[in-house]
Amino acid sequence: QVAIGAMSAPERRTDVFDGVLIPPASTSTAACGYKYYQDRNRKWPFHTNAQGAALLGQLFDDARRVIAALDAAIATSVPDDAAREAIVRSGVDIYAKKPSIRERDVTWSQTEYAHLGLQREYCRFKSVQRFTETWACLERARARGVFEDVGKGGDGETRRVASLGGGPGFELVAVREFFKAHFPSVTLDLVSLDLEESWRASAEALGLRFFQWDMRSGKVAETCGGAVDFALASYVYKMYMCEDDVADWFADELKDMHAAFIISRDQSLKTALMEKRGVDVRKLMALQTQRGDDRQLVFSRDRVFEPWSTSTKSAHAPESSMTFPNVPYEEHKTGGGDQHRDRDRQRGFRGGWDRRDQAYVASRDADRVGKSRDSRRW
User: Composition bias, kind Polar residues: at what positions (predicted)?
Assistant: First the structure.
């Protein structure tokens, strides 16, 4: 694996984010008049306001820096332009076809994750999805009181946030910008933990710390060099964390964490695996079905969070003023809210959301027999 260096990258014909963010028409008066895309085919539009557009513009700059460095690494790994383009094309193919998902039930294998072309394609598209979904998760969590104690320690307050299986760490970029906006006095220590060592240079280019780390080993605080206040598990819970050994160490580490945020494409997860180990599981997404929606969760141990009062602090009420509304895509939303919702409801980003896995539902419900759970308790 070639390290990312400073050598000039081969010139690309177009900007990697060209057409991803589209400004509103000059005559538009919509609050969320900017259109943007998360999917590589730019088929499913989302909308945001001026603040969200500015955040995306900054994200694009961060991601361009990483992609330029990856291009430089590709340039040093092979002798000619044709071979370099072959690596890029191969990465596009791996990203699109996901050859390991049927054979191994993982999105990409470790060998594929180490492919520079795949990493380049990943940063082009996952940067937007990971950033916007994490920001939306943090907004919902703040509305529900998860950050009530943050920012009250004065200028010397430091919080450590670890992304479990975080790869390049675009989720942590969202954390950084969110804290700048809401808790500017807090100093952050942002750490990406991932098995694939070659993500290190990308994470460090984003201003993050990186450690090679095996999900099965635990020892998150020890690896990060001290207590972790918040953890993120974005798109790793279903595939890598639904095992007894992982649940054991995760539940144990949560005793010393303020909270962990779980972000997933699946509306039903094996949350009972954590609940039976004493973990409180709180849903952030609006309850749309009898079982609810597990795509954004908060895990904690013996923490009491006081939700914002919608009568006294309505600006912070969930869903009412989201920077990135309808993220992740809510297929069952009905009535009210953002003016784009009904128009784009049938055109939302379905490519990332699987239908409920019936086997998971049966397994989870079997685990819950005899247990009472109040999903509204915060």
Answer: 310-324
